[in-house]
Amino acid sequence: MTDSRNTQLAERLRIALAEEQLVDVTETSKILESQSPKQLASRGLAVLNLVIGSLRTGMGGRTVISLELDPAIGGNDKELDLGDVRTGDLVRIALQSSSSTTKKKGVKSTKSKKTSSAESGASTEDKNANKLEGVANVSGNSISVVIDEDNNDTLSSFGDARLWLVKLTNNVTYNRMNFALKKLKEAKSYSRIQEILLGQANASLPVVLSDVTFLDPNMNDPQKDAVKFALSDSEISLIHGPPGTGKTFTLIEIIRQMVSRGERVLVCGPSNVSVDNILERLKHHIKGNKLIRIGHPARLFQGNRMNALDIVSKTGDHGQVIRELREEIDQNLGKISKTRSGRERREIYSDVKVLRKDYRVREKKVLNDIIMEAQVVVSTLHGAGSYSLRNAAQASGRPLFDTIIIDEVSQSLEAQCWIPIMDFPDTKKLVIAGDNMQLPPVVMSKSAKTKDVLEKTLFDRVESLKEGEKVKKLLSIQYRMNENIMQFPSNYFYKSKLVADSSVAHRLLCELPDVERIEETEAPVMWIDTQGDDFPESSLEDNNKFDTSRYNENEAYLVFNYVKKLLEHGVTPESIGIIAPYSAQVSLLSKLIHEQHNAVEIATVDGFQGREKEVIILSLVRSNEKGEVGFLGEERRLNVAMTRPKRQLVVVGDTVTISRGSKFLHEWVKWSEDNSMLEFPDIGEVLEAY
Length: 690
What we know:
With 690 residues, the protein is of the alpha/beta class.
């Protein structure tokens, strides 16, 4: 019987997701509806003046449209400005009218409610023009779009016309999460793992294995304990991996151990980056078709595409069955560009439609065989809900996977995690890994209720179980930070349990090759205190971005001067990272520094999650009489920032303002006053040096 608590959980998550999706779509629509194609292109959201270069067939009979810059716009040598369009983005292609680069002011849009937001911003002439949606694949100076449906008439109408492309909100992830929640809500019974997660059963207390032969000889004791724990008979294992403790390294060992025991493993994560990172390491140990990556080929790292289901189905022995059919389809598509007759184009597309139907039937069998023969399947969480995996599960006649592993679970929405858990209920074991003291899942909604629901992760759910602490293993030895950098986050976030390995505990910036030994390069932690009236923050009302961002100009000059000092004393630009909580400060710092030192990396906290640098300079921005600190009040964001450096952390900020922001910030400032090198800059010297 369905438990009412499960119904309430599913409904609570569904309502919060609906709110989040509405905010996501609304924010995107605000931008798209208010901007002309030219303005969207200037913001990096659109690409103009494109024409179709070629057409070919991709996985599932999809059409791959290769786009190139219209030769009439500056010739064949002009570089294509792709803006912020990236591989994996959902995009829309539309006809570009001659007036599409301008938009009349004061003219109210007359588009119907059914018209997609991506149409807005286009000129009146192309409001009703045909459009295609697909996934972008960016490679160097070219872009292609993979479309799923048969859109013969639309493609035919494009012909040699000039096109434009715009980024959209991707609803596929929301749809798959909602589908998983629907199954959770309506299930008549639950698997053992599902019952444990829902609090209806207790996890088995593990009998830890003692005779494990480790495949990697470099594992430390906490990592070995975590591996043995994951291989035990407990249905659920939680691996807590603080910064620099080798969480991914440990997961690789677990996967290899399971494969050596003949098990089949599904490895998931919240993003393509998270799972491609694992795949990159796994492919050195698991060869050939035994390791398969599920996902749209356009979204995969270039180096991992040989493991992609699409590529394997084309190049392996299985692929011979469908290769000839694919070639026949491509030959027909190639004829289209050679004919001007609309009637002939329609006839060719009609033939292609018949061939594609046969192609999909044959391909389904090929894909099922490849997936069922693989030992490890790697996928994003929403990719785990793909038709390819579902079809293989139905065709296999047995459980498709023995174990599900979810990495970066603390950055994953709980609803995402339910996708593989509900789709593969016969799985015997669930291993989740992450750190709930680092960045939570990205939530756009400002609603406190929605954020509270969506920021609670599966990590939190397992930890809160009756036996939560008994199924959790902490990786406690870190290999990144000087122990002085590590000390405060260890004390505050990890109950003082982190230990710096002897190889990193005392390393300093001045020990790097060619770096001079001066006071600044000998200090592992510095705080450059900007208290007073000389470093005031400012706000930037950016109407294009529909938000308010903060910046601190004099603080930016101070950061710039410190970077110059490091460079003058031998630190390389590639060794330096700068983190700021606000995009306006990132933009200002980039303008100041990148003109001369482009290799210095500058980003918000989110851009540095999972990353490390020899030096991290943290520009806090906030300096005001009210003690308002904004984003800085989010403890987990600051934990990420302060745990990125290996040899030096430099904090630039107003200790008076910061210490008034929260109990956490007060304790951080107090600790820093006792344990870091303090500097008090003179504004005159700062501006003169700049």
